[in-house]
Amino acid sequence: MNCNFVVFRTMPIIRFVREGRDVKCQFGENLREVALREGLELYGFKGKLGNCGGYGQCITCYVSVAEGQQDSLSPITDIEQTKLRGRPGNWRLACQAVVKTSAIVLTKPQSPPANVESLMDEALSKDLPK
């Protein structure tokens, strides 16, 4: 018996909290590339001057992943293990993170906006497709 079937997967959505934007992307797409493609400000001042182009060396493309959503991105890489030592456990380098499912992220968590808690609460209150 020949069983042919197609599995349809919903495109993941990255909810960028600071920017107030939901962005569709492909499964397996690099998070840094998603942000840059959409024209989002991923880098702070120093990162704009000297980012490494996505190789995990400059550690300027920090993002914070909403609590409980770390599995939405690829596992933390060896580069991140080294470069993020001493940083919060939910921080990632966007250049090293690959999208698996929808996620909520805060860009530039090292300088959060004054209303970050209310922005995060609002972002978490709206459903995301799995």
Automatic annotation (TrEMBL):
Annotated Pfam families: Fer2
PROSITE patterns: 2FE2S_FER_2 (PS51085)
Keyword entries, A-Z: 2Fe-2S, Iron, Iron-sulfur, Metal-binding
CDD domains in UniProt: fer2 (cd00207)
Gene Ontology MF terms: 2 iron, 2 sulfur cluster binding; electron transfer activity; metal ion binding
Ranges of residues in domain 2Fe-2S ferredoxin-type: 12-111
GO-annotated biological processes: P450-containing electron transport chain
Highest taxon, organism lineage: Bacteria
Cofactor(s) of this protein: [2Fe-2S] cluster
InterPro entries to which the protein is assigned, alphabetical: 2Fe-2S_ferredoxin-like_sf (IPR036010), 2Fe-2S_ferredoxin-type (IPR001041), Adrenodoxin-like (IPR001055), Beta-grasp_dom_sf (IPR012675)
Family per record: Belongs to the adrenodoxin/putidaredoxin family.
Matching PANTHER family: FERREDOXIN-2, MITOCHONDRIAL, FERREDOXIN/ADRENODOXIN
Name of the molecule in the record: Ferredoxin
Organism: Prochlorococcus marinus (strain SARG / CCMP1375 / SS120)
Name of the coding gene: fdx
